Structure formats: structure tokens, C-alpha cells
Amino acid sequence: MYAFTFERPTSLADASRLAGAGGKLLAGGQTLLASMKLRLASPEQVVDLGAVRELAGIRREGNALVIGAMTRHADVASSAEVRSTIPALADLAAHIGDRQVRALGTMGGSVANNDPAACYPSAVLALDATVHTTSRKIAPGDFFTGLFSTALNDGELLTAIAFQVPRRAAYIKFKQPASRFALIGVFVAQFDSGVRVAVTGGGNGVFRHQGLEQALTRSFTPEAAAGVQVSSQDLSSDLHASAAYRANLIGVLAQRAVAKALG
After folding, report:
1. Closest by alpha carbon to 48, among 58, 65, 33, 68?
2. Could you tell me which of 67, 94, 136, 202 has the fewest CB atoms within 10 Å of its CB?
3. What is the C-alpha separation between 62 and 53, in angstroms, rounded?
4. Architecture of domain 168-262 in CATH?
5. Residue 194: Cβ within 10 Å count
6. Sorting pLDDT into bands at 50, 70 and 90, what band is 5?
7. Of 83, 86, 92, which is closest to residue 121 (Cα–Cα)?
């Protein structure tokens, strides 16, 4: 490691001020600290958000479930509100990493980092979630902009995420054995207006699959998902899996997610 200053603000106003001055934000630290140890990141000032109570918590607002950015994975997984309102989201959180990661990692940190194999971004897209920041509200389709990239501006803090409550939903992932990130993860959510299907782990970032959405909107059944040809074009191919294997996984996991959502 190397020399840097460490700040631990207790209010959102102070955190915003420090972020605006160039401080590097620390949420759960699951990515930043590892990057600093490897000297892939070298911030001069680290701003720990752990003491900002305004950034944590879970509440229902109309037909949305609003979760603060600093809410830990373990708290999302164990929340009675989440488990009763959007059980698929609680299930997703319960299977992120291991117990230590879930105890420290945060929803906002994961979404803001936008790892291409992270689980939460698929929930944001599938559940038509609005991302709240210190200056605006961002639609899910506008938030994720590329590999480890989002629409957040310098000094802008992600404060909460408002997930729309679906009729039914489910998330299934095929884990990469070493990291427990998603080799492929599929989140399926059915609303009165139609079905949304989000895929993580397939390429440079999370994306929606229009073919699966159209088929499942017509018939929300595993058989409908099975009838969709999933292209391997633009999917990743690496030492863990070929693009063709990932394409097959998307189809299989979509079928399983629908079956799980139907109970």
C-alpha cells in the first residue's frame, strides 16, 4: 500500500463535499481495496461511506421498493420487506460471494462498480429500477454505459435504488467456481405490461434479451423460453467458457428462472 488520507463522514452533505473534491468513495471495499493492494488504483484520499446513515435502509414507496446504496448484501437477503415484496431480489443477495462478502459488500457499491459479471445490475434492468443520486434520478437503460462504466459523474453519489415490484420474478446464475461471480446470470421479471429479462456475465456488461422478453410476454412458460434461439454473437469467450457455451446457458437459465418464478 502507499500513503493516502482517510475520511469517514457521517452525513451525506459531507460525503458529497469530499467526493466533489476528488475523494475516492469506499462502500463495501470489495473491489477498491483489492485494486489498491495490487496498485491498480492509487487514490490520494479515500472517503468511507460506512457511517452515513442516510445511505442505508429499505422502505416501500408505492409500487417500488427503495433500498439505500450502503445497504449490505446480507441485510437485503434477510430483510422481511424484501423477502415478502420481491423475494427474487432477496434470493439474489443471499447468493453473492460468501458470508464475508455479503456482510461487507453493498448494493450501491456493486451497481456503481458495474462489474460485467455482477448480480445486482441484472436486477436493476429486469426490475425497471430507477437509480437515485445526489443530483438526479437515472433510468436503468441509461445508467450502465459499458465495461466498469456508468452514467455517474465525478463527485456524484449513488444514494438509493428504487425497484419496481413485479407480479413474479426469479434470478438464477451459473457460478464461476473460483470467484462465485456469474458465469451467466439471468433475471426474469413479469409485470402487467410485459416481461423483462436481464443477463449478466455474458459480455462487457449487463444487457436485456429482447427475444426472450417477447416470447415470455406472449407466454410466461419455460417452453416459450426454450423456443428462443440465443445467439453467441457479442458474448465473451475465455478460459472459463466459450461464447457458444454462454449462449446455451442463457437459454437454459432463462427456462429455469421462469419455472422458479412460477413456483
Report:
1. 33
2. 136
3. 23
4. 2-Layer Sandwich (3.30)
5. 13
6. very high
7. 92
Q: Report pTM.
A: 0.95
The predicted pLDDT at position 204 comes to 92
Going from N- to C-terminal start, the domains of the chain cover 5-164, 168-262
Query: How far, rounded to the nearest angstrom, does the alpha carbon of residue 93 sit from its chain's CA centroid?
Result: 9
Tens digit of each residue's pLDDT (9 = 90 or more) over 38-81: 888 888 999 999 999 999 999 999 999 999 999 999 999 999 99
pLDDT tens-place string over residues 149-204: 999 999 999 999 999 999 999 999 999 888 878 999 999 999 999 999 999 999 99
CA angle 224, 162, 168 (to 5 degrees): 30
Q: Do 71 and 56 touch, CB atoms closer than 8 A?
A: yes
Cα separation, 26 vs 31, whole angstroms? 9
Q: Are 112 and 150 in contact (CB under 8 A)?
A: yes
Per CATH, which fold does 5-164 belong to?
A: 3.30.465
Asked whether the beta carbons of 92 and 123 are under 8 A apart, the reply is: yes
